[in-house]
């Protein structure tokens, strides 16, 4: 069999047409509005966008903390939406979550060793001695002193607390970890240490990450592919290098343009206009293209018809009416 005929491996995670609606006082908040994505084994998919676009809600929906209004979440081909509590418990051992706030995500009443051990206790894994041995090994692997396992979270720095959260997520040997803004609350120097740790752990254990962040510069260092999200929808999906070298959606260009550079006065570094205005309400989003109210290229068509997420070339997808393939095989973008 030639390499061209080789079967495409089934994705570890496949979410299809996920919608999450929340009833509010004056209507319905559309937190996630019809998203479909796939994540391969050993891959890191970055999910980026402004605060309030629905990134964290999507992550919590995948692990079952939020129930979707419609759609499916398949882990190894098994749809876990609507699964019984017992079935969901079994699947949760294979997917874990690292939360954004290392201060709020750890129980202040428990010693750190017990926090890391708790998933093993919940899932009835190993004897007490075996669990203790694994906790010490995990602590050492993420850069914590085994002697500190009897201390409590308030005695650790922010970076150390996030390492505790990483150790806890690894306890059950998961295949998938949802990283929900795992470094946004940390100092820049500590961010780099945590990202390097996540990369090393992925290589060692073959982990798959959904890495959620509002910071494209962080995602650039860890993701294989990047999905750009705006007001509950994916507007662009591309391999990381191509997204940076050839961003097609005006929103993606503006996000890249907003990344700090060493010399902002240097010519050529600010090629695209910055986004103006505030992100619209998810309760009453704009008609057609949700980004049109902030887009410098918006036309009448943008208000009348929602652009579908289309494959433009290879594995590069974009939701914009004005991105097209040209006759010579190139790409025309606004």
Note down, in words, how this protein is organized.
The structure is a single chain. The protein has 334 residues and is an alpha/beta fold. It is 28% helix and 23% strand. The chain has ten helices and 14 strands. It has helices spanning 55-62, 85-92, 112-122, 128-141, 158-170, 188-205, 216-219, 240-245, 250-257, 300-304, and strands at 13-24, 27-39, 44-48, 70-75, 78-79, 95-98, 176-180, 208-213, 225-230, 233-239, 310-313, 316-318, 324-325, 331-332. The strands form three sheets. An eight-stranded mixed β-sheet has the order 6-7-8-3-9-10-12-11, sandwiched between helices. It has a four-stranded antiparallel β-sheet with strand order 2-1-4-5. Helix 3 packs across helix 4, helix 3 (112-122) packs parallel to helix 5 and helix 5 (158-170) packs parallel to helix 6 (188-205). The longest helix is centred in the middle third of the chain and has 18 residues, at 188-205. The protein is globular and about 65 Å long. The relative contact order is 0.13. The mean pLDDT is 89.
Key attributes of the depicted protein:
334 residues; alpha/beta; 4-stranded antiparallel beta sheet; 10 helices; 14 strands; 28% helix; globular
Taken in chain order, the helices and strands follow as EEEHEEHEHHHEHEHEEHHHEEEE
Structural class: alpha/beta
Calculate the mean pLDDT score and round it: 89
Shape type: globular
What gyration radius follows from the Cα positions, in whole Å? 21 Å
Beginning-to-end CA distance, first to last residue = 42 Å
How many strands in all? 14
Major β-sheet profile: 8 strands, mixed
Number of helices: 10
Question: β content, as a range?
Answer: 15-25%
Query: Which regions are unreliable across 5 or more consecutive residues at pLDDT < 50?
Result: none
């Amino acid at each position: 069999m030639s390499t061209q005929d080789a079967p495409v491996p089934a994705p570890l995670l496949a979410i299809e047409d996920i919608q999450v609606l929340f009833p509010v006082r004056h209507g319905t908040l559309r937190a996630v509005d019809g998203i479909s994505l796939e994540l391969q084994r050993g891959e890191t998919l970055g999910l980026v966008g402004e605060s309030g676009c629905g990134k964290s809600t999507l992550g919590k929906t995948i692990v079952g903390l939020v129930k979707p209004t419609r759609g499916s979440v398949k882990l190894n081909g098994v749809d876990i939406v609507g699964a019984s509590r017992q079935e969901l418990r079994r699947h949760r051992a294979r997917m874990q979550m690292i939360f954004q706030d290392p201060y709020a995500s750890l129980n202040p009443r428990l010693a750190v060793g017990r926090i890391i051990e708790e998933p093993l206790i919940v899932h009835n894994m190993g004897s007490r001695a075996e669990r203790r041995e694994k906790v010490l090994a995990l602590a050492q692997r993420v850069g914590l002193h085994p002697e500190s396992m009897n201390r409590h979270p308030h005695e650790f720095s922010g970076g150390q607390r996030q390492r505790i959260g990483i150790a806890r997520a690894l306890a059950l040997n998961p295949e998938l970890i949802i990283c929900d803004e795992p470094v946004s609350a940390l100092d820049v120097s500590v961010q780099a240490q945590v990202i390097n740790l996540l990369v090393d752990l992925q290589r060692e254990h073959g982990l798959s990450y959904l890495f959620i962040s509002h910071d494209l510069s962080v995602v650039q260092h860890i993701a294989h592919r990047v999905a750009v999200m705006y007001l509950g929808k994916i507007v662009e999906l591309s391999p990381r290098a191509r997204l940076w070298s050839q961003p097609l959606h005006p929103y993606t260009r503006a996000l890249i343009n907003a990344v700090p550079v060493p010399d902002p006065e240097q010519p050529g570094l600010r090629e695209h206009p910055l986004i103006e205005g505030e992100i619209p309400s998810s309760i009453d989003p704009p008609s057609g293209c949700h980004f049109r109210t902030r887009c410098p290229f918006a036309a009448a068509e943008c208000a009348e018809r929602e652009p579908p997420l289309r494959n433009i070339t290879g594995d590069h997808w974009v939701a914009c009416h004005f991105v097209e393939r040209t006759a010579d095989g190139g790409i025309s973008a606004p």
